[in-house]
Amino acid sequence: MHARPRKAVIPAAGLGTRFLPATKAMPKEMLPVVDRPAIQYVVEEAAAAGLRDVLMITGRNKTTLENHFDRVAELETMLEDREQHEKLALVREATELADLHYLRQGAPLGLGHAVLRAKKHVGAEAFAVLLGDDLIVDDGVLLRRMLDVHERTGSSVVALGEVPRERVNSYGVVAYEPGDEPDLVRVTRLVEKPDPADAPSNLVILGRYVLRPEVFDVLERTGPGRGGEIQLTDALSELAASSDAGGVIGVVHSGRRFDTGNRLDYAKAVIELALANEELGPALRAWLPGFVAGLEAGD
């Protein structure tokens, strides 16, 4: 058995240009999904999987991320004085999720560079990486499965999902061989955003990783790849080919997942999670069929 990772890294330095003008003054990670910002779902997922030491890699104009997870004494006092205990609990929940640390990326050199910035904080141990663009609202089930696989095998682990082949050029795509369990594959190669005609499969990385510390050494010698950025997929390809580094295993996820970097998927996430919300769901479910019927009737 190998040591179970204790730390999570959340890269959150992107500019969010696909959501302009909404992200002109607000980080994309703070866009609301029903009743909380998208980034809180990610931190909740890490905490639910037992990863309560969380390093967020940020950039300029991202101070609202830190503010959201910080205490606001005057707000808490006001809610306490007004005996609004449910709201007070929700405000405190974000603060108490995990031990959060923050580090600036410094330059927009890609996901691989953002992960490399975590080297001093992580040290010589395996760690998880969670991207905020992918919301996987499952109480940490997928991430715990990935941690279990790493603990048993010592390999780096990536979460994978199927997408239509015409959409693979938006993702890191894997070539693979069957694994020793139905939801596992052995990754042999990774390609960043390939042309659909050249893609080795339609299994793509979903933005969840459990990485051995050897990835830092690889990233330090990895030059800019696609888009002039240091690509994490390039480093993972090298690890996949190295038995000394434990190789790379993929966990195929068939559950719900929202690509909130895509505006349509973001809208779907808001609708689906609102429908699942105990307070909003019943009224929304009652209203929605009539609204859709009106659209179909051309009203």
TrEMBL record:
Give me the reactions it catalyses: alpha-D-glucose 1-phosphate + UTP + H(+) = UDP-alpha-D-glucose + diphosphate
Q: Which GO terms describe its biological process?
A: UDP-alpha-D-glucose metabolic process
Give residue ranges for domain Nucleotidyl transferase. Answer: 7-266
Enumerate the InterPro entries for this protein: GalU_uridylyltTrfase_bac/arc (IPR005771), NTP_transferase_dom (IPR005835), Nucleotide-diphossugar_trans (IPR029044)
Q: What does the UniProt keyword field contain?
A: Nucleotidyltransferase, Transferase
Its domain of life?
A: Bacteria
EC identifiers of the protein: 2.7.7.9
* Gene Ontology MF term list: UTP:glucose-1-phosphate uridylyltransferase activity
What family does the database annotate? Belongs to the UDPGP type 2 family.
Name used for this protein in its record: UTP--glucose-1-phosphate uridylyltransferase
User: Which species does the entry assign this protein to?
Assistant: Pseudoclavibacter chungangensis
Q: Which gene encodes it?
A: galU
